[in-house]
Structures are given as C-alpha cells and as structure tokens.
Amino acid sequence: MTDFNIDAPREGAVFRAGEWRDVRGATGGLARVLVARWTDAAVTEAVDVSHAGHDGLHCVALTLRGASVRFVSNGQVVCDGRVPAGMIQITAPGTPVSATFHTAYDVLHLFVPQGVLAKCYEARFGQPHDGPIVLDDPRAFADPTVERLAQALALAHANDATVSHMFCESVTTAIVARLVAQHFSQSIMARIMSGKSPSSSPSRQLSPLPQWRLRRAIEFIDAHLSRPLTLEEIARSVGLTRMYFAAQFRRATGVRPQEFVQRRRVELAQEILRREQCSVLDVAMHCGFRSQAHFTTVFKRFVGRPPLVWRNSAVTAS
User: Which Pfam families does the entry link to (predicted)?
Assistant: First the structure.
C-alpha cells in the first residue's frame, strides 16, 4: 500500500488521533462507525501504548504501512515483528490491549458499534442475529478487498482531511460488512467440520446447501486438491447443477466455491511448508497451482506474506 503524509487535520469524518485508540469520549451508543488515524512517520525510539478496551465498540485496526510492532491482546502476544501493510486486527469490546511500535506507523482504527454490526449481519443473512455480535478472534489477517477499501479511505483523507461523512460511512460499512460475512462464514465451517449443524443464517430467497451435501463437497475438494478442480465436478459430486450448487454453497459458507477451493489449497500448502523441506515449486504443484508465481500470489492474498517468508517465520515460532 502507498504511504500517505497528512497535515494537521481539519474537522471531518476521519480524525487524527492524539492518543492510541482514542474515540474522543464516544460511547457504545454511537450510531455510526468512527474512524481515527494513528500515525507517526518519524519514530526515533520505541512507542509504548495501551488501552483497557472500549465498552460496546469493536476496534478494527487497518495497517496502512508496514511497521515493526509487538501487539498484545488480553495478555496474549498476537504479533511480535514486522507487520506488513494491509494487515487487519479486530479487538472485541472490553478487551485490554497494548502495543510497542519500533518504527514509523500509520494505522486506521474503525470503532464499530453494535448497531452497525447488526445491520450488516441482517443484510448479509436475511434475518437478525440472535443476541449481541462479537468478533472475538484477535489474530491478524489479510484481506485484499478490505485493504483496497482502507487504501481508498486513507487516500481520500490525505487529499482532503475534511472527507465527507457520506463517503466515509459508505466505505466503512463495506469494510464491516465484509468482516461480518467472513467471521460467520468461518464459524459455520468450523461447526460443519466438527460434525455440528451450521448456525442459522439462511436467505429467504434460497436455502443454504444442506449439511450432508456440504460435507460431501468439502471431502471431494480435499481429496482432489493436487489437481485442477472445476465447479461442474464439485457440483456433480453432490448431485446438483453447477449454478444451483454455487448459489447454495455461497449461502451456506459466505464464500464462492472457487474461493473456498483456493483457501483449502493454501491451508494444505501451509501444512507442507511447516513440516517438510521441499521447494516452493514442489509445494505449488502438489497443491494444484498452475505455477509457482500463481501460488505465491494466491498464498500472499490469503496469508499476507509470500510462502518462503511465512515458512521462515513459522519455523522460528516453533
């Protein structure tokens, strides 16, 4: 992502935070997403910051430039080292966090009230969520769609510190909607793989793929990751047409079948990279990628780092 320089802010939808994760006294009753920019391009010594957590607000951190940082959430180290631009980290309400920045940093913080999460959930799944929504996975991850949206917001703010509330609300709503859909899709998949029924999030227009068909499709995908897979093949394995299967699969998981297949290929590649000393090309071929370049591109999109960089960090961590 591009690094942006900003002057002292004027009043607008995005404000430059004077303190880390500062929301200017906003409470959990906030009706819209509040956006703060935490940035310093001239760090000469380590910057230690901490926050006790916001009551009723999720904090979504979007990294605009790479930085060396140690981040701790609720007493657990989430990352300690170089964090590339484009990484995302979500802190649930009331979660104490701290960080030490060793280099220059530029981060957008989105403070998301429960009402916005609820609207995004209902728009995605066609019915209200039962109870408060909590996105409680503190691990950092990458998402190219969210990265581009964050970049657009940062660029607009760099060009005009008084960027309109309408533009800001549109972009932040798109980001939150994406994160909500991903969170619940992953929760559904975890339940299915553990033999439980998926949580109820059906659309009124089309029912999700039945659990038995979904499990069979996943088993078929996992058994054939080493070769090219077509949508027709997967649909045929569960006795459905290509279009109907794709629609029901997306209703059940929140992602397109092709995206799910790529994710499973990357997960398999991570297992091989972690336990075996084979070349990146061999891993790419074993996991069904058409070339090493294609594998590297897809791997970085899902994981946030190239395969070799990820392998080295995984080996060091173990």
Answer: HTH_18 (PF12833)
Of the candidates 265, 272, 273, 250, the one whose C-alpha atom is nearest the C-alpha of residue 301 is 265
Q: What is the DSSP string of 43-71?
A: --S-EEEEE---SSEEEEEEESS-EEEEE
> Do 266 and 243 sit in the same domain of this protein?
no
Number of Cβ within 10 Å of residue 2's Cβ equals 10
Question: In this structure, are 146 and 161 located in the same domain?
Answer: yes
CA–CA dist 207, 211 (Å, integer): 11
Tell whether 247 and 265 lie within a shared domain.
no
At 159, list the tokens. Answer: 């060009």
CATH code, domain with 306: 1.10.10.60
| Range with the poorest average pLDDT among 16-20, 23-27, 207-211 | 23-27
- Give the three-class secondary structure for 50: strand
Of the given ranges (2-6, 104-108, 233-237, 247-251), which has the lowest mean pLDDT?
2-6
DSSP alpha helices (H): ranges in 140-291? 144-159, 165-193, 211-223, 231-237, 242-253, 257-275, 280-286
Q: How far is CA 130 from CA 127, 190, 195, in A?
A: 9, 19, 22
Sign of CA dihedral 110, 19, 103, 94: negative
Tokens 């509330």: give the residue. Answer: 165
Report the candidate in 290, 315, 299, 292 with the shortest Cα–Cα distance to residue 263. Answer: 299
How far apart CA 190 and CA 211 sit, in angstroms, is 12
Q: Per residue in 153-184, pLDDT tens?
A: 988 877 776 667 788 889 999 999 999 988 88
- What is d(CA 56, CA 110) in angstroms, rounded to the nearest whole number? 13
The reply to whether 206 falls in a domain is no
Tokens coding 279: 């070349």
11-21 residue pLDDT tens: 456 778 889 99
Rounded to two decimals, the pTM is 0.59
